[in-house]
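User:
Hi there, any thoughts?
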Amino acid sequence: MICALAQKACRDGFSVLYRRVPRLLHELQVARADGSFPRVLARWAKTDVLILDDWGLAPLGAPERHDLLEVIEDRHGERSTVIAAQLPVKDWHKYIGDPAVADATLDRVVHAAHQITLKGESMRKKRSALATETPPAP
């Protein structure tokens, strides 16, 4: 579903950036090391739609928490940010870890958000099952 939203936004003329959160955090770590951090943040802040996929998969360290807050803060009230997670929203505070950073981040994300909760089996699982089915004999 997240890819369908991204494709629709692109067709409608919006700039879109898709990142899995682990990759986004790694990119920010590299950007800090090579001095391009401000430029990366500025570029992402100008993107109309930022899609953050796989939110909540791995615990965050202090630098990752602060980097996510920077990304969210730069976009808050200006651009759209889509977060895809299997982790329920009620557990996001614990995922972020530090109470002050979690409060600041979630204050910018959750209160003005449109939440869509999907139910049912994973589409990847369904596609995998369809691909392995053998066609009936003639």
About this structure: The mean pLDDT is 82. The chain has one domain: 2-132. Residues 21-34 form the longest helix (14 residues). The CA atoms of residues 4 and 85 lie 16 Å apart.
